[in-house]
């Protein structure tokens, strides 16, 4: 029986990484193509290194109103997407269609929640699920069948033990850990004085947030104890924000996620228009020997 392996790609993360990793790439007419080129190259690396039987690229579709209602400043510190990157998105989508690579973007939903919902539905369908992302929120999804891989495509799985090394807690406790320390990248404030190591020690001692607050008198450090007591509401709110949704109606037809070999005739005009000469040459040589 063949092993079924699903790779879920955080498309937005790959876009940004490509845009900032490759500079000054454009057509002769001055149209920027650096993000498109890097995006294609990273997807190729992921395919070659991890050899999925199925895959799906997931893009952010906006910020959920539920999280903004809980914290108005959620991700508010992030700068707007650069125009030079924004104008390349239609070309990336065009490439995905021509390359027969399935992708999804749910309006008003973050890629993390879409990924989490698909992961839950995929558990009984695949032998393993690999998530290409750099987002630590995804740590909460890791288990014996779900791992994280780098977006750059280089070899290196992050499993439950790896999460423990990075954070001090296992994936099942990541939501509680983030609720205490906050997340500066998402503009979520944590409990003052409670850093990653302190949060990990508290979770190790009490097991979970509910037990921590039920037995808060057992926290030895008086300063930490007072901060926790004053921040009960903040921690409860954080928990609601950082816990990924797993109930989105985004169940894909698994057959449509199968790896497919694209037709050279669809890709060649795209590569030529983008002036990706090496990729165009590759397609021509492949087509010649078919």
Produce the secondary structure layout.
Layout: E1 5-10, H1 11-21, H2 34-50, E2 54-59, H3 65-70, H4 83-86, H5 89-98, E3 103-105, H6 111-122, E4 128-132, E5 146-149, H7 160-167, H8 174-181, H9 196-206, H10 209-214, H11 222-230, H12 232-242, H13 264-274, H14 277-289
Which CATH C-level class of the largest domain is it? Answer: Alpha Beta
Q: What is the SS-derived class? A: alpha/beta
In total, how many domains does the architecture comprise? 2
Number of separate helices: 14
Low-confidence stretches: none
Can you tell me the CATH architecture of the largest domain? 3-Layer(aba) Sandwich
Rounded to the nearest angstrom, the radius of gyration is: 21 Å
Order of helices and strands: EHHEHHHEHEEHHHHHHHH
Helix fraction, binned, reads: 40-55%
- Shape summary: elongated
Strand order of the largest sheet: 3-2-1-4-5
How many β-strands, per DSSP? Answer: 5
Beta-strand content: 5-15%
Q: Note the main sheet.
A: 5 strands, parallel
Average pLDDT level:
94
CATH level 3 topology of the largest domain: Rossmann fold
Distance between the termini: 29 Å
Features:
290 residues, Rossmann fold, DNA polymerase, domain 1, 2 domains, five-stranded parallel beta sheet, 5 strands
Describe the 3D structure:
With 290 residues, the protein is α/β, with parallel strands linked by helices. It folds into 2 domains: 5-166 and 244-289, 3-Layer(aba) Sandwich (Rossmann fold), CATH 3.40.50.1010; 167-242, Orthogonal Bundle (DNA polymerase, domain 1). Helices cover 47% and strands 8% of the residues. It is built from 14 helices and 5 strands. Strands 3-2-1-4-5 form a 5-stranded parallel sheet, with helices on both faces. The model has no long low-confidence stretch (mean pLDDT 94).
